[in-house]
Structure formats: structure tokens, C-alpha cells
């Protein structure tokens, strides 16, 4: 739907200035608000028409702001401020994002203008628009918003500032500051919005957790083993887990101390992990019930690395496949099941042979399934401890394993340990 045409029709219907409606509508759409929702939001804002505008915005406590509000005036403390650039219809826009709070609650905001917001400031935002974002109200501070910095310091029951540990991050966080060590990093070239773009991707760690990151403006400070302070990052969801993103406004500096990496992953029940919708670095323990079809010898597309069938790739058509090994095994701990995926290296370990050995084995038997059968004979019915990243989608739960070890403790030893824990 054409924005200008929609704005003209809406302005005529409401009896308000077309340019003002057009500006408001464009900003909502730029921030991924569906057109129908944006139109309804502006209808609420301008009061349904007549007389060049709607009623004055109501003054509310932050905890009382709802998605039914068109615009409000609130007083709150700035908890966080993040800055990044978004692109819409070929144009770049710099926005400021974060959270405001008072003693009744906190709310996310997006500022389309530079109001000079600073962490810790107490502000009054007059005529702030309200939109719905992932089911919650969010403030939009734009051309029609008046922002005043107050002398008083509002006392709020929330942490002021963006410093967080990795374990505290959630998708949607903005303006966060981390102190981390770089566990893994690689430079990649992707097909970005400006064509081929170089980025860094890898894994950050601190004392609480490990999480994946992407640096969209590769920085020389980000090298494996470095301990860094990383200011102003935002967090997206990738395969069900938080992913740290560094923008062009992120500030990276070396620390004068070493950040310790958490040595062990969080151990969860399978059911708990699956219900959580995904986790980056977890440890599951259970019995292997079966090895699924598609295990053992497989062939992959040389372009996208997907497993192919009969020389056909779903994305690239007929290709000459590249031989590989993998295992897909069902792990059960009594609370749920998950498919554990072992890569070539881990599959070679449980098979007790290399890829070349497996190819020879299949040729001698004239049946490639003997490789998967050998793997199944060695692991099915055994208890394993698996560490890796869990993703959950419409097709089920999969754990991409990084560590895969048979549980060695005898049953009585585990029982003794459990009793000791209960006795305190």
C-alpha cells in the first residue's frame, strides 16, 4: 500500500494536516508496524476526525500506559540509551532506543529525534505516541513530542544503566554494556543491504554464560582471547537464543583484567530446555533411544552445505555432492526428547574411524547404511552427556553437539551424590 496515498486519504477522513499524518505514518511503518495497525493507531491519536486534531494526551504513570492509548505524557527515569541506524526505502535513519521507568513500571521507547537523552536523567515526555511491540506498549518520541529534562532525580526500583552479564540478556534488549572474553571469532562476507559486506561473528563469554555475537563493523580489538568492554549493543533472537549485535555506534575497549569464562554449561532437563524455546550453551543428560534416518554417510551441497538427496539440492538443483558424516540420535531423560546432531568429527569418534574408513566400509558391504548401523550399535541404549546449542521449531527440537561423552559414573555413585546434596 502506498504511504502517501494512504496518508492523504487518512488526513482527509480525519480533517487534519496531510504532512503531519504522512510523517507519523511513515515513522510507524519504518519501524515495522503493519500498515493496518499504523492506520488504526493514527485514528486513535487524532480522535477520529474533525477540527484538525484529537484530544490532548493524557498524563499517566508508566505502569498504566497500554496499547489502547494513542499518546500520553509520562515522567520517568532513563534506564538505558542505545543508538543504531535502520534503513527504510533506501534511506538511513538514526534512532535512539532504551527503557524509561517510574515507581509503577518500565517501558521501552524509540526516539526518532536526538533529544539528548542520557542514562540516569529524569525526563517528562509530552505527547509521546504509543504503539504495540510484541504485545506490549512502547513509546514513540518524534516531532510532536516535547521532552524536558527535570532537575529532580526520580527514585525507581530498577537498575539504572545498561551493564549486564550475558546470562541477563534477552531478545529486544538495547543499549546494553558487557564485559566479555572472545572465545571464537571469524570474519565472513555476507550479501548485505549494501552488497557484499564483511562482518565478524563468533562467541562471547563471561562468568555467567556464552552467547553468539555479530559485529556489523569489524573491529580490530575483537580477537580470540581478548577481554573487552563492549558498550551499546542490542540483542536479537537467533534460533531461539539471544544474539549480541554490535552496531557502528558500539564502543569497544580492552580491559585491564581477564574476564573468566564459565567453564561449564547450564545443565537442564530436556523438557525444561525444549519448553524454553532454545538455548545457546546447555548440557543435557539422557539415554539414547535410537539413531534416526539420515545418519551415517551423507552428501552435502557444495554451495550451501545442506544435505542432499539423490544429487538434488533444494536450493541449487542438481549438484555434485560432497561426502560427509553425521549422526542424528534421539536423547530422552524422562522429561522430554530431543534430536542430538553430531558433526563429522564427533561421528568419527563414536564410529571409531575416519570418513575415508566409512566410505571403504560402505563399498565393501555395498551398502552405505552399515555405517549408521555401526554407530547405532555403539551408542543406542547408553547414557550420554551432551553439550551444545538447542533450537526449537515446527519440526522439533535439535541440539547441535559440541561435546558428546558417555556418562561414566556408576549408578550407585550418582545416588550417593544425590543423597549428599539432599542432606546438605
From TrEMBL:
Family annotation (NCBIfam families): PRK07218.1 (NF005554)
Organism: Halomarina salina
Molecular function as annotated in GO: DNA binding
This protein's name: Single-stranded DNA binding protein
Disordered, as annotated region: 43-63
Keywords carried by this UniProt record: DNA-binding
